[in-house]
Amino acid sequence: xxPLAALKLHHFGLAARQPELAVAFLSxxxxxCGTPIIDPLQDVVLRWCERPDHTPVEIVTPNSSDGPLxxxxxxxSTSFYHLCYEIDWSTDESLEKMRVAGLRVVTxxxxxxxxxxxxxxxxxxxxxxxxxxxxxxxxxxxxxASA
Length: 147
Known about the structure:
Elements: E1 8-16, H1 19-28, E2 32-33, E3 37-39, E4 44-50, E5 57-62, E6 78-87, H2 91-100, E7 105-113, E8 121-127, E9 131-137, H3 139-146
Parallel strand pairs: 1-5, 6-9
Antiparallel strand pairs: 1-6, 2-4, 3-4, 4-5, 7-8, 8-9
């Protein structure tokens, strides 16, 4: 078995200065986009867009002029900038598995509770040669950690 085969693609992260334009495009494809949610810990506004049998899209908009999307949106008004993977291991275990697999991974934002995902922990990491990933701890992991 491949060492990272258990990583499950959860969603695409789309940074957008004008989220209504992204919502219009996704809606025209049959996606349903929820209402905006402010995540003060991440300093962003989020909209979750989903369509059956398709990978969801998380539209991420800056909540302040100095937030984490400042550099992402410096050259373009929209950009797919991260892939999110749901993990059954802890964040630390997942990072160790990546390193054992020979990947160079740099943590940009340590795990913190995410409003959009009911307080489940998310973290952001740069994988050399691939790009930015978000790790989302699974609900099963959350239940076993609290038991």
